[in-house]
Amino acid sequence: MEELQIITHQQNDLKIAEVISRDILIKNIDDGKDLAANLYYQGFDNVIIHNKSIAPDFFDLKTKVAGEILQTFSNFRIKLAIVGDFTTYASKSLNDFIFESNKMGRINFVSSIEEAVSKFGQ
């Protein structure tokens, strides 16, 4: 796994990890699973990742990378917010996936750190 920095945000009694990396942090399913396990064992159950830290394959639902990784976060009971601009993705299935994920609330696709932090408090 590439070098990463974890910034801890505090919202009431929630401890939120913001994962920062200059490189693509999640290139494949194993990277995503390793990251989820690492953060879980550090005591985080709310995580923010920037979309620029995730390989483009994640956003191509046919690859099943997103499904596998998000299922792992869910298995660890980690709420996840992915921060970025998702308007650049033209895929209807991805946009539907983002809409449904945001509606359920365990996985959120948001445009800012502030929005991510507020979603965890809901």
From TrEMBL:
<dbReference type="InterPro" id="IPR025438">
    <property type="entry name" value="DUF4180"/>
</dbReference>
<dbReference type="Pfam" id="PF13788">
    <property type="entry name" value="DUF4180"/>
</dbReference>
<feature type="domain" description="DUF4180">
    <location>
        <begin position="12"/>
        <end position="119"/>
    </location>
</feature>
<protein>
    <submittedName>
        <fullName>DUF4180 domain-containing protein</fullName>
    </submittedName>
</protein>
